[in-house]
Amino acid sequence: MSIRIDSEYGILTLHTAHTTYQMQIGRGGHLLHVYYGPRAEGMFARSIVPADHGFSMNPYEIREGRNYSVDQLPLEYPGSNIGDFRTAAVDLISDKGICGCDFRVRSYDTEKRVYTLRGMPAARDPEAESETLHVVLTDEATGLEAELQYGVFFEKDVITRAVRLKNAGDHAVTLLAAASMCLDLPERYTERIHFYGRHTMEMQEERCVLAHGIQTVSSGRGMSGHHHNPFTIICEENTTEEQGWCIGVMPVYSGNHRTDIEVDQKESVRVVTGINRDTFTWRLEPGEIFETPQVLLTFSREGLESLSQQMHRFFRKHILRWPEEWKKPPVLLNSWEAVFMDFDEKRICALAEQAARLSADLFVLDDGWFAGRSSDTRALGDWTADTEKFPHGLSAVEEAVRDHGLSFGIWIEPEMVSEDSELFRKHPDYALRVPGRNPVMGRDQLVLDLSRQDVVDCIYGQIARLLEDGGIRYVKWDANRNLADLYSMALPPDRQREVSHRYVLGMYNLMERLISAFPHVLFEGCAGGGGRFDAGILYFFPQIWGSDDTDAVARLSIQRGYSFGYPPECVGAHVSDVPNGQTGRTVPLSLRALTAMSGTFGLELDPARLSEEEKEELRRYVGIYRKYAGLIRTGVYSRLRGERGLDPLFAWEIRAEDASEALVFAADTDPQANAKAVTWYLRGLQEQAQYRLTCVEPETVQAGDRTLSGQIFSGAELMQGAFATRPFSGNAPAALYYFERIECE
Ligand code: GLA
């Protein structure tokens, strides 16, 4: 049993295989957070020592002794205006003028299945192995109820949280903040890791010491954003890849998110996560319900590596869902960097033929294929084939692609509209726009008001028509600007700050309907690369284009960043041409191909520009990827080298869950003269087992004067430094080593 309730002491305990999470109903009925850490039996509430804290007030009924203060207690879901001066989880104003809320426990209950959310992604439980704890809190003055929901995923060491706020009072309330969770932690947590970036340079790891006051990671862009990924890690000072306590906090949300980490006067650490309250209010009439997005929580005492592995295993079972036909990952060729928008039927068919010669599985026609799309200033919203480029329609291209033995895929940007489009001319009100103000332009396009059901229905109809003859087996779903001009014609003035969340709900509705109606289609998310790379999108679309920067050197730190929270097989990564279109850098095909292999591995170049030898080499890499794709999609991932911009040598390992095989990828971005040999410390192998090394790339690797390929090491040797290779040299050298467990003779 993963949920235990001790009614006598009011203790609610959640156990996963290796972690325990405990709450206690405090004297005043406040729900206290008393423990989240290594699996343990016990009553952690004893860690709370009553004391008179200066300038920390006491609830009226517990004022005697002055030693019970909500400003000092670890609270599970704090309201506001109640003498807790830290960041609140919920804030509101009622139509009676009541500000804030004072939550006390009313009831609790367990359920032998995992909770779901209306219209929002919530981790799936395909084998019905998880349980839910519900705890209902109420605020007497307004009648607001907060039902805290905890999904306990025992095997995966993940706890999910979400809150159902119900207005059970007789006056409307306006929510000013409605976080998905609060986590009050002890002072041992002194650092946080988050992933900042920009367009074409996402997911840069940043580790900071927590300071007194509030540090915030957020987005107000209407999307989770390139700039601050919603995933945050809170850890101890000494946490490394292999040791230390750490907690991962991942909102399952694609809109404006916010994580506040507040260190208070006595060094307690409060983490509040959910929808960004800066761009949010929500009006709840009596009887109405508001559900917050879900947050995933995972704890490890063994450092960042196992934290990431817990997230990866969780994603693989409970978030990602691949269409049956794509369980075996396809190698695709995408037309974007090959031809941009400069093509016609003949050029596209020739490109598809070249893709087939490189033994790709799937050909993707990127931007530029639809009516009048001669440049990125026009035609978004008109999702029918351009008759000039494609006089015989898309079906002719589809057929040609199929004749080459490939599946056909297409690019769309369904949330957007160009002013110069039929859709906009017919429905100018479909675009988000503030009355009396010129709209903000981004890439010359406007954002459709997906907070409106009629707009969602219209877009659904367009995309469904495109997919309904079954010829399209893959869709790249792009979104190339952020949201501004938040105003919806369909909402009254006092509800306008609901638009950004309603937009996300509309978008999820569109995605859910499309993946349900077309379950055979593989959707890949994209927002100018990783501008909306989050668990919310991955719930619908199992892969997301990782970055518009296809430079393999830049990709090393970007893809390393993703690996902290997301498994490698969901990161879109392609081999592109050189010099690279974004950075101008020229690096060898080996680095480009091997880097793409720690993602989805696709091609994004015009093979016609390659020499015959290069094509041959590329075909070889396609073959290598195919051989290891299954391992990459299911394996256990460890970051071996490449720490936060400090180490120019990037390396990671992906091994089978049963440690029967392991792939090690390495790339040196700054080879040095007179350098020392590279000593490897592999992870997670069986100490006693024997492993044979195959040097896949370069085909022969030397250590001193020995050729390493074919050599046999014990697991202990590989993990403890017996495997060493000559220093890397050359222009951006890369290597791939494969270790296979062999039966002892
Ligand atoms: C975005 C995507 C690119 C490409 C272009 C097309 O920038 O990230 O991969 O599809 O749009 O306009």
In brief, what are we looking at here?
It is built from twelve helices and 41 strands. With 745 residues, the chain is α+β, with helices and mostly antiparallel strands.
Taking the sheet with the most strands, its summary is:
10 strands, antiparallel
Helix content: 10-25%
Q: Any idea what the shape is?
A: globular
N-to-C CA distance: 44 Å
How are the elements arranged and paired?
Layout: E1 3-6, E2 11-15, E3 19-25, E4 31-38, E5 90-94, E6 104-111, E7 131-138, E8 144-153, E9 158-167, E10 173-185, E11 191-198, E12 201-209, E13 213-218, E14 228-235, E15 246-252, E16 257-263, E17 269-275, E18 282-284, E19 289-291, E20 294-300, H1 303-319, E21 332-334, H2 336-339, H3 345-357, E22 362-365, H4 393-403, E23 407-412, E24 416-418, H5 422-426, E25 445-447, H6 453-467, E26 472-477, H7 499-517, E27 522-525, H8 535-540, E28 543-545, H9 552-563, E29 571-572, E30 574-576, H10 589-597, E31 602-604, H11 612-634, E32 636-641, E33 649-655, E34 661-668, E35 678-680, E36 690-697, E37 702-703, E38 706-707, E39 712-714, H12 715-719, E40 723-725, E41 734-742
Parallel strand pairs: 21-22, 21-31, 22-23, 23-26, 26-27, 27-28, 28-29, 30-31
Antiparallel strand pairs: 1-2, 2-3, 3-4, 5-10, 6-7, 7-8, 8-9, 9-19, 9-20, 10-17, 10-18, 11-12, 11-14, 13-16, 14-15, 15-20, 16-17, 24-25, 32-33, 33-34, 34-41, 35-40, 36-39, 36-41, 37-38
Bound molecules: alpha-D-galactopyranose.
The site of alpha-D-galactopyranose has 12 residues, from loops.
